[in-house]
């Protein structure tokens, strides 16, 4: 993590860009009294929490909840700008292990450790250790995980059997490309694979960066020299773009996690490489036509033993929040051990948020429902380290992201270039040349402050 701390002026520039891009009008969401305003990403598990939140209000009659639900690409800039400027619009924010260490170091977040320690039975030691550590700063937790994830490959067992094919338990990317070609059935509306193409550092760059890593590439070398036109990075980009263009989904350049999930669950893709948290949607009979028909394999590799990412959607309290005690009471409810049973008994066990608490994996009903993907999820999270997923050292934290403040802007710009290449608007080499310029300007500022 050498060189990661930056001058406040550079960070202020990033925040200013985010304010301009996504935060106009946020001040209209001000809190008052005992109403908690909760900024949340509109993924399926989070929507379930909103649907169940009436239980919290009944148990806490003095507290009302107001949710601001936004897609990931919209929620990030709005939450970032509000938290960084101490705007006070939100009492609880949903962020990830990308933001937590940086924001804690900047003094933007409430230290949750005193609240955790004063909550008998909450049991923070029950959190999956790597997820807990990723949400901590100097030994204290500054966010608590709603769910944790790595990445893996979901595939249609029935289509494989019909085609006389077999999925290796630890596939390589060349093997996946070969399988995608054989399973591609455009005539019947089934693509060989679904891969994110929607621009955004949390969208197409999440799976793409794992390909970058296992191909032996990196964003910056140890001296902060940008590496986006290196032979390894070029090979990874050409592979990813060629695979999704030849055997990926229709409209791939605008397909993200939600779009790929919907296509796969509707039987329109033979394989899908994405987050382990997707399994709940795939196996949920209310949203999927292919329940029980999927297998789960480790994230594909090339030159590394593993290539899954490490990620957590988590809840935090901005420093400017007006009622931190009430905020903690809500966060405790949404991340407590009991919440898993509430979801399972009310909505179905496949909809329980995965990868955050070890105790979830000791619930017989959950393990019965999640038997196909529970172990692959935990194994993926456990194996998701830079040592296992990269071929050499890098000067930044993170696996599927570069853990520096500038990456919100840099990653989104590069994601736009990648999406344009997938759409056929520019060549891969053109996309990488432009991306290299973006990355070089960031790397140069780090070299100057070493």
Quick synopsis:
This protein is of the alpha+beta class and about 450 residues long. It is built from 19 helices and ten strands.
What is the CATH class of the largest domain?
Alpha Beta
Which strand order do you get reading across the main beta sheet? 2-1-3-10-6
Q: Unreliable stretches, pLDDT < 50, 5 or more residues?
A: 1-33
Radius of gyration: 21 Å
InterPro entries: Bact_solute-bd_prot1, SBP
Keywords: Signal
Pfam families: SBP_bac_1
Protein name: ABC transporter substrate-binding protein
Write up what this structure looks like.
The chain is an alpha+beta fold and 450 residues long. It folds into two domains: 8-148 and 312-371, 3-Layer(aba) Sandwich (D-Maltodextrin-Binding Protein, domain 2), CATH 3.40.190.10; 151-309 and 383-448, Periplasmic binding protein-like II (D-Maltodextrin-Binding Protein, domain 2, 3-Layer(aba) Sandwich), CATH 3.40.190.10. Helix content is 44%, strand content 11%. It contains 19 helices and ten strands. A five-stranded mixed β-sheet has the order 2-1-3-10-6. Strands 8-7-9 form a three-stranded antiparallel β-sheet. Strands 4-5 form a two-stranded antiparallel sheet. A hairpin with a 2-residue loop joins strand 4 and strand 5 (140-141). The chain is globular and about 60 Å long. This is ABC transporter substrate-binding protein. Keywords: Signal. Residues 1-26 form the signal peptide. It comes from Saccharopolyspora rosea. Pfam families: SBP_bac_1 (PF01547).
